[in-house]
Design a protein that fits this description.
Elements (H helix, E strand, L loop, with lengths): L7 E7 L3 E8 L2 E9 L6 H11 L4 E7 L2 H14 L5 E2 L9 E2 L9 H14 L3 E6 L2 E7 L4 E9 L1 H10 L20 H28 L4 E5 L3 H4 L11 E2 L3 H18 L1
Parallel strand pairs: 1-4, 4-5, 6-9, 7-10, 10-11
Antiparallel strand pairs: 1-2, 2-3, 7-8, 8-9
Helix pairs in contact: 1-2, 3-7, 4-5
């Protein structure tokens, strides 16, 4: 596809905590917006406004790990635009080959992020998505999604410690500037943040051992800057790409078009 014929994609990432939308055309991502799952009242009008600005040809494509929020998105689109939402895994195939036991059961956001990372890097890579949940996944040099690991998200871990214990308090997550937690709050924050960094390092090392070489590492998700405040300087993480999943959502549609044209 030439730049002139690349369709514009209104990409939607329907997550557990938020619905994120953006206009994606090729490598360009514009008009990013985020709506909390509990406050989707303005989603329809925002999508309609953005859709009207997109040049033709255009499609609305979504990946979802939240069926209820996806239903709300589709209702909003139907009420305001009267167009179909193409859902990855339902209407479109996954944007990358996999070696999974049940590819249809994997979170589409994980696969979209992995596809976008490999598309940009072209070599074996690891994608760490530090959002509501944490996922750390691996793609081979051949561009095959190998799978990975799912952990509690950082805020989820903090909430669980507060809610499932008698005395541990709620905390505000931040970059620890200490080694030893000198009080309970510091101990909790340090345990969660240092634990996430340790999990990333341990899994990357395990993947590297299996691959036979060190993969490049890309992070995304709201807590990625907390896990790696200085990408490119810690010897593990090369970059943080906040819109990685949305790029992968558009890629799913582009790959579908290319395969259909063959």
């Amino acid at each position: 596809m030439s730049l002139e014929t690349i369709p514009s994609v209104l990409a939607c990432d329907v997550g557990n905590s938020a619905v994120r939308i953006a206009h994606v055309k090729g490598e360009e991502v514009e008009d990013y917006a985020r709506f909390a799952v509990g406050d989707l009242g303005q989603l329809g009008s925002a999508i309609a406004e953005l859709w009207a600005r997109l040049p033709d040809p255009k499609k609305l494509v979504a990946c979802s790990v939240n069926p209820a929020a996806l239903k709300a998105l589709e209702a909003a689109v139907s009420d305001t635009l009267h167009v179909d939402v193409l859902v990855i895994g339902r209407d479109l195939p996954l944007p990358i080959d996999t070696e999974l036991t049940n590819p249809e059961s994997v979170g589409a956001d994980r696969v979209c992020a992995a596809a976008a990372a490999f598309d940009r890097l072209g070599v074996a890579c690891v994608v760490g998505d530090f959002g509501t949940a944490t996922t750390i996944d691996c793609v081979s040099d051949e561009g095959v999604f190998l799978g990975g690991a799912i952990l509690p998200g950082l805020q989820m871990a903090a909430d669980a410690l507060n809610q499932r214990t008698a005395q541990l308090p709620p905390v505000t997550l931040r970059d620890p500037d200490w080694t030893y937690g000198r009080d309970t709050q510091q101990a909790i924050v340090g345990g969660i943040v240092f634990g996430a960094r340790g999990a990333l390092r341990e899994l990357v090392e395990a993947y590297a051992t299996d691959l036979g070489s060190w993969p490049l590492v890309i992070l995304t998700g709201s807590h990625a800057p907390l896990v790696c405040p200085h990408p490119g300087e810690n010897g593990i993480v090369q970059a943080i790409v906040p819109d990685l999943v949305l790029r992968g959502v558009a890629m799913a549609y582009y790959r579908f078009l290319i395969n259909r044209a063959r």
